[in-house]
Every structure is written in structure tokens, then in C-alpha cells.
Design a protein that fits this description.
The protein is mainly alpha-helical. It folds into two domains: 46 residues; 237 residues, Receptor-associated Protein, CATH 1.20.81.30. 76% of the residues lie in helices and 5% in strands. The protein has 17 helices and three strands. It has a three-stranded antiparallel beta sheet with strand order 2-1-3, with helices on one face. A hairpin with a 5-residue loop joins strand 1 and strand 2. Helix 8 packs antiparallel against helix 12. The chain is globular, with a radius of gyration of 29 Å. About 3% of the residues have low confidence.
Length: 396
């Protein structure tokens, strides 16, 4: 839940702070812990939160890159954060950076400051910074996180680039179909009004649609527009996306690829955490959120097995969290004592596998999609002209 709080800072200024917390009491407690004096609390409407969330997301990767550059230039951490805050133009991001700098000036650790903003910095990022603080290697830790984000972004871009052309085909095909249904069909319906009893069943249905559009065009268009907006909004909701994901997971060919994709992300995340000095079981627990609920249960069982002293490769394999390649590489990592590096290599191997599968699926899916769009448009045209064909046949 998001809250808008009016509070007095330690310097005596009155500020309006947007804050996300589990409840109102938690929001007040966290801000008071940062030295604020709360004046009022208002609940912000969550009706359009999915749309705002995309715009309000904190750019963690960019922040890490810029912070790393300033630290490498010799600036102290507090000064580097203040410098980033000074150049920031967005007020909400500037507020977060100013408050982090204020917490650091109080003598608290960087990871403790980041923990105060769970909506901006996830547990993975905070754990990476906390592990780096123990070994005083914040710069290398930020470098590892930036590399991690770039690798994930590269995979996401490949998937998005592969989906652009199919989306373009669907868009063009949809526009053509709407033109036929909203402009051409209503005019054909006037021509066939006297012969409506002689029309085939599907042609009658198309004629009825034409009459509906001609008589109540604005109402029909508004209803379709409302359905489209509702569907787009529903897809932003986490529970709807989760339900759609469950359906995809039940399709054998797609579900198996989704599993490999999630395991690749999980191995990459765990490898980064291990190289940052985080213990294996803790690293596995932090990567839980990256997995489907079914795989989370398996990971919990594998973690218990590892805690009991069993081999990592055997525990992961017995719970269905490996592929044949991953199993062999995990065994090699156990023997060589470089589990973090080996998990990175497993992720890289499966990322390439996913990329090849996306390319193959795109080459197969595009012609099938074009054929489906052609069938839909062709069916509309044939149903419009079918009475003319029948009339020509009767004249002969």
C-alpha cells in the first residue's frame, strides 16, 4: 500500500513523502526511524498503481553504474550519493537519494540505508551491498551487479526484439479487420436487407453485426474499447499474470522452456551472490522469488537437503532443479571449489539455448500468424461476397 505523508525533517523543513509499506503504522514507524516527525498520513489510491509502477521504478542499474564511476574517481560514499542527488531532476528519485545520504551522515551503513526503501532496492541488491561491506569491496560488488543486470537485460531484449514483428502483424491484421467490420460490412448489410432470409447462417450473423454497427456504432465501439482497456489493465495485475503463467507452464513445450529460462536467471543470481561472499544456503534463499511457485517448493526441499550436508548437485537434481548440462557443471564446481563461477557458466549456456529457441520459434510462428490473419480477413470478405456468388450461380 502506498501512503502520502506530510512530515518535518531534522532540518525543520516540511516535506510531502510518498512511501510504500505494508500498513499505515509500518510507514510511520519507518519514517520516524529516519528522523522525520509525522504530521499527517493519507492513503494513495491503488486503482491505477500498475500503470504508475512502470514510471516510478527506481533505476537501480543506472544508479549503480554512476555510483561506481564516482567511487572509482575517489569520492567518499556520502559525497557520491549527494552528487547523484544534485544532478537528479525527478523529484521522487531525488528525495530517495537525499534520504539515503541523510542516513549515511547519521553513521549508519549503506545497506541499512538501502533497506529503508524496499520499493526501490530489492533484497538481492541490499544483500549484495551488505556482503561487500563485510569485505570492504563495494566497488567490485557494484561491478558484479551491473554486469548481472546487463546480462539479464540482454536476454530480455532478445525476447522483445523477437516479438516486435509478430506484434506488428497482429496490429495491422487487427486494424484491417476492424476496418472491414466497422466500415465495409455495414454498407454491405444494406445491399442484402431484402435477401436476408436467403443468406447462409454465417452471412446472416455478419449482416446482424452490420446492422448493430450502423444503428449503434458509438455504443459498439465504446464497448470494444472498454474491453480492450480492461484486458490491458488486467494484464498489469500480478494475479492475472500469475494465472496466465500457470496456463503457459501447463503447455509441455513452452513450460519446459520457461523452466530453463527461470533456472538460468536463478543460477546467474546465485552465482553472483556466491562470488560476493554470501553463503550458499542464504544465496539460494534470496533467489527464491525468481522462480515459479512450483520450483520454489522444490528449491526449499533442495536447501534443506544441502543444509543436512548433502552434495549441491545431488540435492538440486533430485528436486528437478537441474538440466543434464547443469548437473555436470555443478559437479565440476563442487570438486573445484568454484561454485559461483560455475553457476555463471551454467546461466550463460542456458541463455544461449533460450536465444536459439526464441529464434527458431519466431521463424516458425511468424508464417503461422500471417496465415491465421489471412484466414480471418479472407473469411470476412468471403462471407460478404457469398450471396453475390450464389446469385451468379442461380443466373447460370
Amino acid at each position: 500500500m502506498r501512503y502520502q505523508l506530510k512530515a518535518i525533517t531534522q532540518e525543520g523543513r516540511v516535506e510531502s513523502v510518498n512511501f510504500q509499506a505494508a500498513d499505515e503504522a509500518s510507514a510511520v514507524q519507518q519514517l520516524e526511524g529516519q528522523g522525520y516527525t509525522i504530521l499527517s498520513v493519507k492513503t494513495k489510491s491503488e486503482l491505477f498503481a500498475p500503470w504508475r509502477g512502470m514510471r516510478a521504478r527506481f533505476p537501480v542499474a543506472l544508479f549503480s553504474q554512476e555510483l561506481l564511476v564516482l567511487l572509482n574517481a575517489g569520492l567518499p560514499l556520502v559525497v557520491a550519493i549527494e552528487t547523484l542527488a544534485e544532478k537528479e531532476k525527478r523529484e521522487d528519485l531525488k528525495t530517495v537519494l537525499d534520504r539515503i545520504a541523510g542516513i549515511l551522515r547519521q553513521g549508519r551503513s549503506f545497506s541499512a540505508a538501502l533497506e529503508q526503501f524496499p520499493h526501490a532496492f530489492g533484497p538481492l541488491y541490499v544483500a549484495t551491498v551488505r556482503a561487500a561491506e563485510k569485505t570492504s569491496d563495494l566497488g567490485p560488488a557494484l561491478s558484479r551487479y551491473v554486469a548481472y543486470e546487463q546480462q539479464l537485460e540482454a536476454i530480455r531484449k532478445r525476447v522483445m526484439n523477437a516479438s516486435i514483428y509478430p506484434m506488428l502483424l497482429v496490429g495491422v491484421g487487427g486494424l484491417v479487420s476492424l476496418f472491414l467490420l466497422f466500415y465495409v460490412v455495414p454498407r454491405f448489410s444494406r445491399v442484402y436487407e431484402d435477401r436476408s432470409a436467403d443468406l447462409p447462417m454465417f452471412s446472416k450473423a455478419l449482416l446482424a453485426w452490420g446492422h448493430a454497427v450502423e444503428g449503434h456504432g458509438l455504443l459498439v465501439f465504446a464497448a470494444l474499447l472498454g474491453l480492450a482497456v480492461g484486458a490491458a489493465y488486467a494484464l498489469r495485475l500480478s494475479r492475472v499474470r500469475a494465472a496466465a503463467g500457470d496456463v503457459l507452464w501447463r503447455i509441455p513445450a513452452i513450460g519446459e522452456r520457461l523452466k530453463v529460462y527461470q533456472l538460468a536467471r536463478f543460477y546467474r543470481t546465485t552465482g553472483m551472490l556466491l562470488r560476493g561472499g554470501i553463503p550458499l544456503v542464504a544465496a539460494l534463499r534470496m533467489g527464491t522469488e525468481l522462480l515459479h511457485p512450483v520450483l520454489r517448493e522444490r528449491l526449499a526441499a533442495a536447501s534443506r537437503s544441502i543444509s543436512e550436508g548433502n552434495a549441491v548437485s545431488r540435492s538440486m537434481d533430485s528436486n528437478g532443479l537441474t538440466t543434464p548440462v547443469a548437473l555436470r557443471m555443478l559437479s565440476v564446481g563442487e570438486q573445484g571449489g568454484n561454485m559461483g563461477e560455475m553457476m555463471d557458466r551454467i546461466a550463460a549456456f542456458h541463455d544461449e539455448e533460450i536465444s536459439r529457441w526464441v529464434d527458431w520459434f519466431t521463424r516458425l510462428f511468424e508464417p503461422l500468424l500471417m496465415a491465421a490473419i489471412g484466414l480471418v480477413i479472407g473469411a470476412i470478405v468471403i462471407l460478404m461476397y457469398m450471396p453475390i456468388f450464389e446469385l451468379a450461380g442461380s443466373l447460370q
